[in-house]
Amino acid sequence: LRLDVGSEGLRARALVRAPGGVHSNVRLRGPHPFIRSAKGAWLFGVDGRDYVDYLLGQGPNFLGHAPDAVVQAVSAACEGGLLYGGQHELEVQAAELVCEVAGWPEMVRFSTSGTEAVQAALRVARAATGRTEIVRFQGHYHGWVDNILVGERGGDWGVASDGQVADNLRPCHILPWNDAELLTAQFEQYGSRLAAVIMEPIMINTGVIEPKPGYLETVRELCNRYGVVLIFDEVISGFRVGLGGAAQRYGVTPDLATYGKAFAGGYPVAALVGRSDLMSQLSTGAVNHSGTFNASVMAMAAVTATLTTLRDRPPYASVEEHGLALMAGLRDIAAKHDVQLRVAGLPAAFHMSFGDADVTDYRSLQKLDLARYERLAAALVDNGIWLAGRGIWYVSGAHGPRELDVALTRFDKTLGEWALKVE
Ligand code: PMP
């Protein structure tokens, strides 16, 4: 299997056969060395380097890489066949576990990606309300497809990609997040035309920003008053900020939610969950949701093993301990080098950037020097800390004292070199 040409050689070959040399555009701006293997909190590169991993595959490896329980469950399940085109025992167990462990959901539909789970959520909400318009928020990410991907181009919010059909976004109001007054005023104008409000209940994708106290309650209340379906996109926050995700953390229950990433130990699977009166619209076929690979044997084994582990041996206390120590250590090192670094968010997922600001939404986040941080992140990867350029650090249950020590030592060295450099 080994090509033995090193990262440079692999990259040259990758560029010939894959656009940009990658298979997800998110990776275009990410770390570049090629990886050969991973275990626990570590990645091992083809060039013989190791990396303490705080990207966790963009979040899924919440139990660390290749957790024994998940690898063994998936391998054992595979022996009995990969995909049946029929129902099986594991999918029943997995659905029951999702509801039991998360607490509030009543029914589940599995899919293979978060993008798909979001699409199913929007369709269910539109079918239930007979309405098409939705509210979504600046900086929140809900997948890459036409009807939900947005970006800011030349000061205007709209399509984020060439080739994206702007008409598909038309039933979509793109609002600043965390502003209860503004949302209330918007609802007064068109609340009765809305099918759904969709949000990351913690805006992790852009800055790891928590909801202001009372904000989620206001959204919940507005949705109740106008008959609008509230969708929490918990693809990142679900099972990461606690077993019950953000819904439990803030005590606000949505009507529908999407899960992915942390609930399957690195395996590609996602889910739409929610109240049974909404979800059961999918039971007749009048509201369609399908997928050849939905609830595959491997996916269901991964979900079952991961959720059993999260329930019976919860990593949350150790994630919190590591995350808090790491955040404090990073701040101390920055202060020592006289560098103004901002480290904010939650221990399980925090955000780092240069500068300082009162950050509550997408706009205020832009006051930080995000571009400069992206250059630091590249230098950190060179020095053995694996990170995305957009500021997020993810902590897993596999991060312990040794990783803390190595990460802080490597961070100190990088900032030392950085401080000497004239940019
Ligand atoms: N929703 C959120 C909140 C996400 O963070 C992501 C992926 N980062 C998605 C949806 C889409 O998930 P996927 O990449 O599995 O399609």
TrEMBL record:
InterPro entries in the cross-refs: Aminotrans_3, Aminotrans_3_PPA_site, PyrdxlP-dep_Trfase, PyrdxlP-dep_Trfase_major, PyrdxlP-dep_Trfase_small
Alphabetized GO MF terms: glutamate-1-semialdehyde 2,1-aminomutase activity; pyridoxal phosphate binding; transaminase activity
Cofactor needs: pyridoxal 5'-phosphate
Keywords linked to the UniProt accession: Isomerase, Pyridoxal phosphate
PROSITE patterns: AA_TRANSFER_CLASS_3 (PS00600)
Keyword Acyltransferase: no
Top-level taxonomic group: Bacteria
E.C. no: 5.4.3.8
A Pfam family this chain is assigned to: Aminotran_3
Keyword Isomerase: yes
Sequence similarity: Belongs to the class-III pyridoxal-phosphate-dependent aminotransferase family.
The protein, known as: Glutamate-1-semialdehyde 2,1-aminomutase
Species for this entry: Kribbella solani
